[in-house]
Amino acid sequence: MTFTDQATGTLPQPAATPAGPASEFAATATAFDTVPGNRRSPIDTRTTVPVLDVTIPVYNEERDLEACLRRLHAYLRSTFPHSFRITVADNASTDGTLEAAERVARELREVAVVHLAEKGRGNALRKVWLVSPSPVLAYMDVDLSTDLAALGPLLAPLISGHSDLAIGTRLTRNSRVVRGPKREFISRSYNFLLQSLMGAHFSDAQCGFKAIRADVARQLLPHTLDNAWFFDTELLVLAEKCGLRVHEVPVDWTDDPDSSVDIVQTAVADLRGMARLSRDLVSGRIPVDELRAALARGPLPAASRPQEQSPGGSLFGQLIRFGSIGIASTVAYLGIFLIFRGLTDPQLANFLALLITAVANTAANRRFTFGIQGRSEAARHHFEGLLVFGIGLALTSGALAVLHGFPAAPAPWVEIATVTAANLAATAIKFLLFRHVVFVRRGRLPATVAAPAPATAGLTAGAVDTSNLQTETAK
């Protein structure tokens, strides 16, 4: 057996498979060059390294692994026109998985084996992808639940430069799926939460059938933390926040009845991952603005037309996020109002409660409801947010004035109910103004968009410790 050079962490490169028909793409560097429409440069398919590296993360899969590898290898040899490698990432298996993988690797030169001492799909993919020399990286589950006919449509947009990531989806109208109602319900519920609370636009975060361009992966992977199943979601959310294009392929998918994945435990871990990722985005642990400047595709020239402006996603998703922020703001408003009501008159208490919550509410809606990041037009947004605050103040103050205009002093619960109702009405007006006035882009963009700045060293910092990474190939 030959081992990875521990000093460099590079995987050995098996001999390339015979190339298919000449590529239609010109040989180019894999840097973030821009062409009309700010598209990525096509992948150089005449490279001396395998164009495609398909990773199969496994844990105790000795029964199914060999058949999976032979089936996938035969499919790629017969249909994929470029060189490829299949990398088995063994995650600390305790059965004969590693031996089965090594046995196949001795026979098939395009199969490599990586053994890791730690469990976790995210950990395996991050470590293998960061040291892979291939320009296109993919992974699929060992059970091959996804029909391999979808592999070509998955990879083509990445090779052409049209897209940055590609995922299989089981949740579109054109997908064909065979699985139980429990898994279907949990999957759809989870993706609904992602779209509603985190503003995700992809339809299926969990399908084990994905691919990414290596130049993009090298920028994003050091900023991911999850080592298990949430890794997929974290990578996709981060990609969208950075302005990358995610291509979706409807798949034919058959559930593996013998799968060892605990879907309830996985779902709970995913919810915790959502909370942690939201904190990371808010706290600035992930340098989204810098990543977006380096990686994002610029807007098309027509995007400057007012009729092409989008205020940040679907109306339904905006309402869910705005409502969640509004509930938190209303609770905070009531708490602050009650605190100041014991110290001063109701009008001043109302003013202070609204003022304290207004700035935070505007900032939260700017970032999460309407998906606006960076400092561009931030001053205008907050100024107009204060004007909207003035409208809310007028409504709630007017309601209190009317209430206290009656001869009898109102009961405390009546006062609270009145300001709550007025605040809810102000919230509805606020949403309409935010969506159609405050957070609408203004001004005309230049006709041409400058190429994104190259990624800085700080973005790629975070080299992977490869001390536990061993690669074994045929003698």
From TrEMBL:
UniProt lists compositionally biased (Polar residues) regions at 1-11
| Gene Ontology biological process | polysaccharide biosynthetic process; protein N-linked glycosylation
Instruction: Give positions of region: Disordered.
Output: 1-22
For the Glycosyltransferase 2-like domain, which residue ranges apply? 54-220
Enzyme Commission identifier(s): 2.4.1.117
- Transmembrane residues, as ranges? 319-340, 346-364, 385-406, 412-434
Name recorded for this polypeptide:
dolichyl-phosphate beta-glucosyltransferase
Question: What organism is the protein native to?
Answer: Arthrobacter oryzae
